Amino acid sequence: MSTQMLSYTNLNTPIHRLTGVTKLIFFILWALTAMIIYDTRCLLVMLVLSLIIFRMSRVPFQQYSFVLYLILVFFVINQVAIFLFSPLYGVELYGSQHDIVHIAGRYTLTWEQLFYQFNVALKYAVVIPIALLFLLVTDPSEFASSLNRIGVSYKIAYSVAIALRYIPDVQQDFQNIAFSAQARGIDISRKEKLGKRLKNVISILMPLILTSVDRIEKISTAMELRGFGRNNKRTWYKSRPFQKGDYAALVLVIMVAVVSFAVTFADGSRFYNIFQ
């Protein structure tokens, strides 16, 4: 794995130049808006904007490919589960029923159900690019200093920075342990069957957990020896003021949220109904 997944890469793009606080506020408002509304028109516009923003970041596909595939697997499972447990929820939601095909028993595929699950899929597609960007384009140290600047305790901010920095370390530890296991004949490559590969991967999780615990203990001891948490305030090596790009990004996400809520609740309901 030559490229670390979900690790920060310093690229000179408008997205990378935003401060950590801007990215956090943008992500929170964007995610809340996408979760609350069910207006297909607004979700489609937000999807286009999120893809444009993600494209602007120029993040290599290798950095998020595995996580993206994993999210897609859970997305498919979620869509199937929605239909299995609530096959007529769309009918109840939109107040009409247009059958496509009767499958068996209470399972009837309707246009209303398809439309509802299409909106759920749009929600995933709108939030996932921004969520990945938040992890991939945020410098942990700069993000911690930004959080502290808006009033978050520097202890909490520093904990967040350590957590973000720890993602590549865990990946590196996993690779080292996996290489050692392969040298002893424990193969986790595609040469093995899927069941055998999963079993072998599980067998190396315990050394990974022990290595992580040992690393946490060392970091905690080092921070304690340096008097971390003794003072109420601290200075930061990386701290940046808001610039024009930050204000533009915040104006954009606020406008998207306000317009989306206005359009969605114009008729008193957050569900856009094309069957009326």
TrEMBL record:
Keywords: Membrane, Transmembrane, Transmembrane helix
Subcellular location: Membrane
Keyword rRNA-binding annotated: no
Predominant cellular place of this UniProt entry's protein: membrane
InterPro entries per the UniProt record, alphabetical: ABC/ECF_trnsptr_transmembrane (IPR003339)
Topology relative to the membrane: Multi-pass membrane protein
Cellular component, GO, one term: plasma membrane
Ranges annotated as spanning the membrane: 24-54, 66-89, 114-137, 247-266
PANTHER family assigned to the protein according to its UniProt record, in alphabetical order: ABC TRANSPORTER PERMEASE, PROTEIN ABCI12, CHLOROPLASTIC
Stated name of the protein: Cobalt transporter
Species of the source: Paenibacillus bovis
